[in-house]
Amino acid sequence: MEIQHQFDGRKGSFFIEEGARRFAEMVYVMAGSKKMIIEHTEVDESLKGQGIGAKLLEALVDYVRKEEIKVLPLCPFAKATFKKRKDLQDVLT
Asked: Residue 19: which residues within 8 A CB-CB, separation 6 or more?
């Protein structure tokens, strides 16, 4: 399963999709050009327990590092994962 990214200039998401169905998604909104707010993460029941949410977050972190964007996680899942994973914390505001 491939993680895809879409961004409309203000909001976007990292997601896994097959056909017309989204199985997992991490949604964010930009607050200016260099600050991203993670709003929500959702993973389909069929994929739970496989680390898919963490993979979405890792893809997001790779993206913001390249773009030099800082992250504010409001999503409870993202917030908890950042707290556990010191290797990702360099992108936090």
From this structure: none
CA 11 to chain centre: 12
5-59 tens-digit pLDDT: 999 999 999 999 999 899 999 999 999 999 999 999 999 999 999 999 999 999 9
pLDDT range class, residue 82, cuts 50, 70, 90: very high
- What the chain holds in terms of domains, given with CATH numbers, is 3-91 (3.40.630.30)
Work out the number of other CB atoms within 10 angstroms of the CB of residue 1: 12
Longest Cα separation, the chain: 36
| Region for residue 88 given its phi and psi (left: phi exceeds 0; alpha: psi -120 to 50; beta: otherwise) | alpha
